[in-house]
Structure formats: structure tokens, C-alpha cells
TrEMBL record:
Gene3D superfamilies per UniProt: HUPs (3.40.50.620), TPP-binding domain (3.40.50.1220)
Record PANTHER family: ELECTRON TRANSFER FLAVOPROTEIN ALPHA, ELECTRON TRANSFER FLAVOPROTEIN SUBUNIT ALPHA, MITOCHONDRIAL
InterPro entries reported in the protein's UniProt record: DHS-like_NAD/FAD-binding_dom, ETF_a/b_N, ETF_a/FixB, ETF_alpha_N, ETF_asu_C, ETF_asu_C_CS, Rossmann-like_a/b/a_fold
Protein name per its UniProtKB record: Electron transfer flavoprotein subunit alpha/FixB family protein
Pfam families: ETF, ETF_alpha
Organism of provenance: Priestia flexa
Alphabetical keyword list: Electron transport, FAD, Flavoprotein, Transport
Family classification: Belongs to the ETF alpha-subunit/FixB family.
Domain Electron transfer flavoprotein alpha/beta-subunit N-terminal: 5-195
Length: 321
């Protein structure tokens, strides 16, 4: 049969986020031999089209407009609805990112369609497409089959493998003019916080600190370890509430959801709300001086000890590799 699937490529500061490539791979599964069409929305994003093709898109549509320079759900929804009207796809895939979480329900509601959000796995089985997604804050997973004629899904970063990049793949990258009107939100200026290089939601290694780090300075050994491993620093809400770090680092039910290859929890007790944001990490290491701490129940490796002794030792050992 084969479906036509649109996949939104998400750009940030002139580069595509890796989840865009994972979404292309998910799109290829949903397409079942049909066409995967990458969509880029923004300003100055056309040059990113080829990369979507190298990761498996058959072609790319670019909608550029001055009013799309910064993300607004209003502007992006207008652009995407115009593309949907033109292309008449049978499915749309987004990354389950801040942008995807904001935009996808709006579009699904406009089109009067259901939305399968936060998909962690996807397979074509027995003539059906089966979507796996977490429920009850990650304590269980459900498998869903769409009964609609149109599939709308967001995929969780770091769960569905991107296809191998192949620079020999070719395809059209075409501009599509859109009219953006009556925007209810205009972004005048974007003030960025100084952040470290690795994006927490997409990081392969996360070193997270809890109330056990005891102060803002207590994060320094965690940052050193993250630097050596090329990872990002995250935090529990306990650490954020205590003002040891910014809330943008919070992981958990009311923070970011991460699925890195390696998650090192330092001085984090393992409250259920924290586990909701990290328990699907591939390998979990817990460092806590309380051997009874709940975090050890989800950890693959546990170190009972003082994080201020253990973390610098780990950093020194990893430096030798
Ligand atoms: P604590 O529970 O105080 O644990 C600190 C740990 O550090 C202890 O286990 C202690 O043994 C250990 N420790 C202390 N010193 C050291 C040392 N030197 N070396 C090693 N270990 C040490 N929490 C989140 O994280 N994310 C969320 O998104 C979130 N959302 C929430 C939503 C709601 C509606 C509610 C009610 C709560 C939410 N929480 C969330 C809060 C959550 O319930 C916990 O309060 C919080 O996760 C605790 O943070 P913590 O583990 O850092 O602190």
C-alpha cells in the first residue's frame, strides 16, 4: 500500500536536531514503502534540506517566511496546514520536543484527528502499525494501533534509531510559499541563557545531581565528569528547588524526559516523579550514600558512597580511557 508521510525537521541555531533524523526513520516505518517528505519551517533553513535526505527523506519541502524566524505555534501551524493541504499526507511525525509537544496537539485538533504522543517504539506487525508509548509516568507501556485514516504521532528523542547517514541519497528540496497572517504572537527578541553545548533531551550521557550536591558549587564535579564523557548535566527537582541549578535542568514528571545511553544519578533519592523522567535510560548508575535509597531499585550499577569522593574518581578514571 504505502503512505505519504510528512516529517517535521526541527532546526535550532542553524542545525537540525538529531530527533529530526529519528523522526525520518519513524516516518519510513509508517510510510510502509510509501514516501517520506521532510518539512522545514523557518527562515534560512533551506540549506538543511539535503541533510534530511541523507538521513532517508525522499524529498523536502521548505516553507520560509520572515514571520517564521522564531517559533510560534500560530505561525508554524499556518505553515504546516498549508503544506498538509497541498500534499494531502496520510501521516505526520514530530519529535516529542517542546516544539512538537506544543504544535502537534494544536494541528491534530485543527484537523479533528487523534494524536499518538511520546512514541518510544514503532513496528509494522501483522498488517498493523503498532506504537509503543509510556503511561502512568513511565511505570507501564501501552501498545496502540491507530484506527484513523490519518496517523499523527510524536516520537520521544533517543528511542528510535535514525537511519545511517548516506550522502549519496538524493532528492528534491523545494520551496513552498506560504501566507502567514493575523499572527497572535510576534516574537520580538530571543534572549538565550548561556548553556553548555550538549542538549539535555538528546544527550547520550546525562550526569544528574540532586539535593545531595548540597550547593551550586556542588555541581562542579558533575560538570567535570560530563565534560570528560561528552554529556550533559541534569538535576532533580530537589536540586532546582534548593536553587543549586536552573529549572531548565530538571528531569522528571514535571521536567524533561531523557533516555540517554548512560544516566549517572548523583545524590538523588529516586522519587517516583524523578524516575518518570529517566527510568528508560539504557544504563543507570546511582551514587548515593544511603544504601536504602529508592534510586538503587532502578539502577543497573549502584555505588554506595559520598558523591564528592566517587564522582572525581570516576572523572580521573574516564580521563585515562
Ligand atoms: P532528596 O529526596 O532529598 O534526596 C537527596 C539524596 O541525596 C538522598 O537520597 C541522600 O541520601 C543523598 N545524598 C546526600 N548527600 C550525599 C552525598 N554527599 N553523596 C551521595 N548521596 C548523598 N522531582 C524531580 O526530580 N523531577 C520532577 O519532575 C518532579 N516533579 C514533581 C511533581 C510533583 C507533582 C511532585 C509532588 C513532586 C515532584 N518532584 C519531582 C519532587 C520529588 O517528589 C522529590 O521531592 C525530588 O525528586 C527529590 O529530589 P532529590 O532526590 O534531589 O532530593
Amino acid at each position: 500500500m504505502g503512505r505519504k508521510v510528512l516529517v517535521l525537521g526541527e532546526a535550532r541555531e542553524g542545525a537540525l536536531r538529531h530527533v529530526s533524523f529519528e523522526a525520518i526513520a519513524a516516518g519510513a516505518t509508517v510510510a510502509e514503502g510509501g514516501e517520506v517528505v521532510g518539512v522545514l519551517v523557518g527562515k534560512g533553513v533551506k540549506n538543511l534540506g539535503d541533510e534530511l535526505i541523507h538521513y532517508g527523506a525522499n524529498r523536502v519541502i521548505v516553507t520560509e517566511h520572515d514571520d517564521l524566524d522564531s517559533y510560534t505555534s500560530d505561525g508554524y501551524a499556518q505553515a504546516l496546514l498549508a503544506v498538509i493541504q497541498e500534499e494531502k499526507p496520510e501521516a505526520i511525525i514530530f519529535g516529542h520536543t517542546a516544539l512538537g509537544k506544543d504544535l502537534s496537539p494544536k494541528l491534530a485538533a485543527r484537523l479533528d484527528k487523534g494524536l499518538i504522543s511520546d512514541v518510544t517504539a514503532l513496528e509494522a506487525a501483522g498488517g498493523n502499525l503498532v506504537f509503543t508509548r509510556p503511561i502512568y509516568s513511565g511505570k507501564a507501556f501501552e501498545k496502540k494501533i491507530s484506527t484513523e485514516d490519518f496517523i499523527f504521532a510524536t516520537i520521544r528523542p533517543n528511542n528510535i534509531s535514525a537511519l545511517e547517514k548516506d550522502t549519496n541519497r538524493t532528492g528534491d528540496v523545494k520551496e513552498f510559499d506560504v501566507e502567514i497572517k493575523n499572527l497572535r504572537t510576534i516574537v520580538k527578541e530571543v534572549v538565550r541563557k548561556a548553556t553548555q553545548g550538549v542538549d539535555l533531551s538528546e544527550a547520550k550521557v546525562v550526569i544528574a545531581g540532586g539535593r545531595g550536591v548540597k550547593s551550586e558549587d556542588g555541581f562542579k564535579p558533575l560538570e567535570d565528569l560530563a565534560d570528560v564523557l561528552g554529556g550533559a548535566v541534569g538535576a532533580s527537582r530537589g536540586a532546582c528547588d534548593a536553587e543549586y541549578c536552573d529549572y531548565s535542568l530538571q528531569i522528571g514528571q514535571t521536567g524533561k524526559v531523557v533516555t540517554p545511553d548512560l544516566y549517572i544519578a548523583c545524590g538523588i533519592s529516586g522519587a517516583i516523579q524523578h524516575l518518570a523522567g529517566m527510568s528508560n535510560s539504557k544504563v543507570i548508575v546511582a551514587i548515593n550514600k544511603d544504601a536504602e535509597a529508592n534510586i538503587f531499585k532502578v539502577a543497573d550499577y549502584g555505588i554506595v558512597g559520598d558523591l564528592f569522593e566517587v564522582v572525581p574518581l570516576l572523572t580521573e578514571e574516564f580521563k585515562k580511557l
